[in-house]
């Protein structure tokens, strides 16, 4: 009567792998496959046989380990697991020491792996030093979003995530937005902003003219004359900044600060003034280069005609470019490579190096620049 002899024979061989490995010593993977083993098992047996059942310079250590493996009834799986950790050792002279330690463990994979990780870390001298903490962001192309990447202490990350998730659930917003709101304010309302209002002339002024540095005078349709500052004050109440623009020509006439009117420091005329930087940011809220979403606050004031080539430090010669695009802009038009920025109809266009149609940056934030915004609001074409 068959009393599951095949199963018993398999279990015996599985529980006594060294007997099988001894028979397989010196055989190739192909030879083992010819004996009826599949390729995966044949490779495992050939590898283990080479370690435990062939001649070695550490024959006494090999014999001692084999004796322990037999006594503890290790299987092919646990022996293969031992070898996977042996391969992680930096000091190969300690291979048999690690094998002996792990052979003394019970033939349970979870227990074996836990002990193996501890020993490998100890033998390799791993101090488990934390990598450098990092924080970076990157604009998402063709959107008003940015990706933020953060690496910090695990307990603080977990606490921040928990707080953001709870706040998001309470206020019906996305956890990512909740995290940023909490990070930029104590109560989750977000950062305090100084709003800027774009004020178009809207046909109320027949003409305008410069009236000295940083001043403009308007001739109104009712026959009176008033300054740009008075015009803006008549239009607005409490706001942060107001940029007065001519939606037809694309010129920004003046920037007015409506709150906290402190004197602003002026830089040397090689560089843009603080007021000029604010004006340009309102017109170019992101880098002017097509496809770039680098915010203006992180960009550089770029002279469209280079200062070294006689370009003046004034508004009609400025744009905003990120450090990367500013670095590759073709300041020398006679040696084109990447193209350059030109101001056309009050807007900042990228002109290809070797010909082609000039391009505007169509990033969503770029479309909200002051000149483009007032033209759209007035029903005028953006491209004049």
Automatic annotation (TrEMBL):
Keyword line: Endonuclease, Hydrolase, Nuclease
Domain HNH nuclease positions: 273-327
SMART domains, A to Z: HNHc
InterPro entries per the UniProt record, alphabetical: HNH, HNH_nuc
Record-level Gene Ontology MF annotations: endonuclease activity; nucleic acid binding; zinc ion binding
Source species, domain of life: Bacteria
Identification of the protein by name: Endonuclease
Protein source organism: Corynebacterium pilosum
């Amino acid at each position: 009567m068959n009393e599951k002899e095949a199963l018993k024979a398999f279990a015996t061989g599985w529980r006594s792998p060294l007997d099988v490995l001894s028979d397989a010593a010196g055989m190739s993977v192909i030879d083992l496959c010819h004996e009826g083993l599949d390729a995966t098992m044949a490779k495992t047996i050939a590898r283990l046989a080479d370690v435990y059942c062939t001649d070695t310079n550490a024959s006494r250590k090999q014999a001692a380990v084999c004796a322990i493996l037999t006594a503890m009834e290790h299987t092919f799986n646990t022996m293969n697991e031992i070898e996977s950790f042996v391969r992680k050792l930096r000091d190969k002279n300690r291979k048999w020491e690690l094998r002996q330690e792990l052979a003394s463990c019970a033939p349970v994979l979870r227990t074996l792996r836990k002990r193996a990780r501890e020993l490998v870390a100890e033998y390799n001298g791993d101090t488990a030093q934390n990598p450098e903490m990092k924080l970076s962001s990157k604009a998402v192309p063709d959107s008003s979003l940015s990706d933020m990447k953060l690496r910090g202490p695990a307990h603080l990350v977990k606490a921040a995530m928990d707080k953001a998730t709870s706040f998001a659930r309470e206020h019906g917003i996305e956890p990512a937005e909740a995290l940023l709101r909490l990070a930029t304010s104590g109560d989750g309302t977000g950062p305090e902003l100084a709003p800027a209002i774009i004020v178009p002339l809207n046909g109320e002024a027949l003409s305008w003219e410069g009236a000295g540095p940083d001043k403009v005078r308007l001739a109104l349709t009712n026959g009176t004359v008033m300054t740009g500052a008075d015009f803006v004050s008549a239009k607005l109440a409490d706001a942060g900044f107001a940029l007065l623009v001519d939606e037809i020509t694309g010129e920004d006439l003046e920037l007015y600060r409506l709150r906290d009117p402190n004197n602003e420091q002026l830089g040397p005329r090689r560089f843009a003034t603080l007021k000029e930087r604010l004006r340009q940011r309102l017109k170019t809220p992101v880098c002017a280069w097509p496809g770039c979403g680098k915010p203006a606050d992180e960009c550089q004031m770029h002279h469209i005609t280079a200062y070294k080539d006689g370009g003046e430090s004034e508004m009609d010669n400025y744009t905003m470019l990120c450090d990367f695009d500013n670095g590759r802009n073709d300041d020398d038009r006679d040696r084109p490579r990447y193209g350059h920025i030109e101001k056309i109809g009050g807007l900042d266009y990228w002109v290809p190096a070797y010909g082609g149609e000039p391009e505007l940056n169509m990033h969503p934030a770029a479309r909200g620049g002051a000149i483009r915004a007032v033209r759209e609001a007035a029903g005028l074409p953006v491209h004049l």
